[in-house]
Design goal:
The protein has helices spanning 5-21, 26-46, 268-273; strands spanning 48-52, 66-71, 104-107, 116-122, 127-131, 134-137, 140-141, 143-153, 169-171, 177-187, 192-197, 208-212, 217-221, 244-245, 249-259, 287-288. It is an alpha+beta fold and 289 residues long. The protein is globular and about 75 Å long.
């Protein structure tokens, strides 16, 4: 005999009741979430992670508001590779190699857990000297070429404050304000070249050394030479306190994914309007002359 409609309805109701009464397996839910977080942490620690530029020390090549991709594997892995600095400081690296001249790297000062982003200008055994803002490597001044001034648009993240860039803010023909930055292009011994900002020869860090880079260390400087606390500055001055051990190098900057001018608000329209459209996709691997 075929079941009538009331029997079918009752069976469906009983099935739904069983489904509703089935308890949540919290162990499996938490386990799945834990494995997902572990996979994300492993990727961030071993392969690549995002990085945000909070300061002007690497202008003109990196601007406040830039978002980057930093690869973790080019120089091997050490305690600093693990994201969020979950491991205590320790010596040694796995599959380690030395950064090349001109690489932009993430570094952690000895005894600290903050991340700096700077450019490699000295490798192990090099002698570094700075005289009136001119970089001298192993007794020879590196090649420098004056470039046309860079007209950088003024925005919330690049305000061109008089305290940082005195007398350099000017209104352009289009009515916008620009920061007229003096650019010097440097070329290192391996042919790598990049632009720097040099405000003049009499700033606090324009004279330094000579200093010999110890074995297993690299010497780092910001491209915004007169507004960068780097290997030339002590840690008390918020610098790196000299050359940085290779196990404190956390990765290499590769590309700008996107950049914001600082005008973002809760209004979704501002999310699009605050994008610096010309920054996305900018490679951070230096040019070779």
């Amino acid at each position: 005999m075929a079941p009538d409609s009331s029997d079918i309805a009752m069976e469906a109701k009983d099935a739904r009741a069983v489904e509703v009464e089935k308890p949540v397996n919290w162990f499996e839910e938490i386990r799945g979430l834990f494995l997902l977080l572990l996979a994300v942490l492993a990727f961030h620690s071993l392969v690549a992670k995002p990085f945000y530029i909070p300061t002007m020390s690497m202008m003109p090549n990196l601007l406040v508001g830039d978002r980057l991709v930093v690869t973790k594997y080019p120089y091997g892995w050490s305690w600093v590779s693990v994201s969020f600095h979950l491991l205590p400081p320790m010596k040694g690296r796995i599959m380690g190699s030395t950064p090349e001249y001109g690489d932009i790297v993430i570094a952690t000062p000895p005894g600290a857990k903050s991340d700096y982003i700077k450019r490699v200008v000295g490798r192990p055994g090099d002698t570094i000297e700075v005289r009136q803002g001119r970089l001298i490597l192993n007794g020879k001044e590196i090649a420098r070429a004056v470039q046309p001034n860079l007209m950088l648009p003024v925005d919330t993240n690049s305000p061109c404050n008089a305290s940082d860039f005195p007398m350099l803010k000017a209104r352009g023909a289009d009515g916008r304000y620009y920061c007229e930055l003096p650019i010097i292009r440097e070329t290192l011994p391996n042919g790598v070249s990049y632009n720097t900002i040099d405000l003049g020869p009499d700033y606090p860090l324009d004279n330094y050394g000579p200093y010999k880079v110890p074995a297993g260390h690299v010497f780092l400087m910001g491209d915004n030479r007169d507004r960068s606390a780097d290997s030339r500055a002590s840690q008390q001055e918020l610098g790196l306190g000299g050359a940085v051990p290779l196990e404190n190098i956390g990765g290499r900057a590769e590309i700008v994914t996107f950049s914001l001018d600082g005008s973002t608000s809760w209004n979704p329209v501002s999310w699009w309007e605050s994008l610096r459209g010309d920054r996305a996709g900018t490679s951070l691997r230096p040019d070779r002359d």
